[in-house]
Structure prediction request, 93 residues.
Amino acid sequence: MNKPLFELGRVVMTKNVASYFSKTDGNKVQEYLNKHVTGDFGQLDKSDIKMNNEAIRTGEDRILSCYNYYSRKIYIITEWDRSYTTILFAEEY
Prediction:
């Protein structure tokens, strides 16, 4: 694993994400979290990636990643103050 670029804070996930991945591929959540914290932000456009990189540099904004797991879209959001990271499905946003 690459070196983490920022602190995750407390990692939480919605009940739906926890339930879904406990029945399918529980390791996938950790894989996505590792990608998020090392700068692989998944399926974001260039402007969102630029905003993430600026947020990492300054510590003044949230960091967002988006990954596709089959037909499900998963967001990982680290708060601006790095106190929490939340994992949720796109429809829960």
Summary: The longest helix spans residues 46-58.
